[in-house]
Design brief:
Strand order of the largest sheet: 5-6-7-11-8
Number of strands: 19
Strand content: 15-25%
Oligomer: single chain
Largest sheet: 5 strands, mixed
Shape: elongated
Radius of gyration: 25 Å
Length: 376
């Protein structure tokens, strides 16, 4: 089942939370002798969903399990096509609903998320959907145990931020309303923010922002604390704002020069199709440090930042490092200006192979306080 978007160009799907809620309803319908093969479910935003049920089977200890195949519509969701199993079992505790993580559903191990430590990684939205179904279809004196299993979740979790967030054993059962709309930029950005909350809850008020895997890998090799590392993707400005709102004191930007040079130019959404001033930035600061006009032209004509750096490296001893230190310092200045000086920012730039290119004094202060072992 899918719902078309307003312009009828995209199909909506339903979340893993909606799959679980539909499974609960299917079990109850079967117990009541009603058709259960296609479940009508009202999402938390009022949207009417019609979700097919693959199977309902009896299990042990009086429980019954429904299987629902996740459908993501036109959203590139990694759980599309996976089976979500929901086991519903009555318990003696009157009116209580107990949620449990089955195979492939994670458990919360770090504070700062919307669910407490030790709880199954079943977010508030799915819990409310399931509660609504149980309140609608059962007597308030009944107690229920709801176990959600997504066997493929063990492997799928490796492709998510769950390991970073301290969610162990599988994926999260997510969904704000139950309706899965094709992933928007806003939704992706918001999915990154919980990393900051987890880091703050772990006691960090000085964070290391890594736009990609290059920065993350090198930062770890330098001994920077894993709990302080925050993946930002291309949304450096957005994540800086999120950190400032939460009272973070310092941020170190740590990554490839291709990203950091954009920040030095005042570009805070660094996707290459939106903002790309890498070569122009390197050329401008190199020219200010004395690079010849002919060499500046070669920097501007370079295919990659690595090609541009090669031009600087042969100009004179130490020239490339001097320019990169300046670019790092300017990235920090622009970032602090972007935030109206709400927090301190330092910057470290590295190559694709992890070699240090440049950094500023604030980065040194932040890094030394965090116990890094920076290569000399």
């Amino acid at each position: 089942m899918s719902i078309l978007s307003a312009d009828k160009s995209l199909r909506y799907g339903y979340t893993t939370g909606a799959c679980a809620a539909a499974g609960v309803k299917a079990v109850l319908l079967k117990q009541q002798g009603e058709p259960w093969q296609q479940v009508k479910l009202k999402a938390l935003d009022g949207t009417e969903l019609s979700i097919p049920i693959a199977a309902v089977q009896s299990g042990e200890e009086g429980g019954e399990t429904a299987e629902v195949i996740k459908f993501s519509g036109d959203d590139p969701d990694i759980t599309n096509g996976t089976s979500v199993f929901t086991t519903l079992r009555p318990i003696e505790s009157s009116g209580e609903i107990v949620f449990k993580a089955g195979l492939g559903v994670g458990t919360i191990t770090k504070p700062g998320l919307s669910v407490s430590v030790g709880e199954p990684a079943i977010n508030p939205g799915p819990r409310q959907l399931i509660r609504s179904v149980l309140e609608e279809m059962t007597d308030s004196s009944c107690g229920w145990e709801v176990t959600i299993s997504i066997p493929e979740g063990i492997e799928l979790a490796k492709k998510t931020l769950n390991p970073v967030l301290g969610i162990e054993g599988g994926i999260s059962v997510i969904g704000t309303t139950g309706v899965l709309r094709p992933m928007s930029e806003e939704a992706f950005k918001e999915s990154l923010v919980p990393q900051i909350d987890v880091a703050i809850s772990a006691g960090f008020d000085s964070l290391v922002f890594v736009p990609g895997k290059i920065g993350e890998k090198v930062a770890m090799s330098w001994g920077l604390p894993a709990g302080a590392l925050i993946q930002t993707s291309n949304f450096i400005g957005f994540m800086l704002e999120a950190a400032a709102k939460r009272g973070v004191r310092q941020v170190m930007l740590f990554g490839h020069i291709g990203k950091m040079a954009k920040v030095a130019a005042g570009v805070f959404y660094t996707h290459n199709r939106i903002g790309d001033a890498r070569l122009e930035t390197i050329a401008a600061y190199a020219a200010a440090e004395g690079l010849s006009s002919e060499a500046v032209g070669r920097v501007l004509a370079a295919n990659t930042t690595e090609d541009a750096l090669a031009v600087l490296s042969v100009w004179q001893p130490g020239f490339c490092r001097r320019v990169c230190d300046v670019i790092a310092q300017r990235a920090s200045v622009r970032a602090e200006r972007y935030l109206f000086n709400q927090l301190e920012v330092g910057t470290v730039m590295v190559t694709l192979t992890g070699e240090l290119l440049g950094l500023d004094e604030k980065a040194k202060v932040i890094g030394e306080a965090q116990g890094w072992k920076m290569p000399q």
